Amino acid sequence: MCCGDGDCRPLGFLLGLPFALLSLLLSIVGAIIWIVGLLLTCICPCCLCVTVLVEFAIELIKAPIHVMGWFTSKIPC
């Protein structure tokens, strides 16, 4: 996996795969929370706490991308 600035870190990518798989599981949980939160928001749009829950779920869904980016930036070629 090569980054946009020209430095290549394939070792960081391979070492980060277990963490990416764990964060992928978290993103699946986030997708379920997101769907339930959207349904609750449609039923009662006045619930502010459901909106916060949906925003948290979106961050969980983005977790694998953040983990892989962070992990590959920490390990040199």
From TrEMBL:
The chain crosses the membrane at residues 12-32, 38-58. It comes from the Eukaryota. Keywords: Membrane, Transmembrane, Transmembrane helix. PANTHER family: SIGNALING PEPTIDE TAXIMIN 1, SIGNALING PEPTIDE TAXIMIN 2. This is Transmembrane protein. It comes from Helianthus annuus.
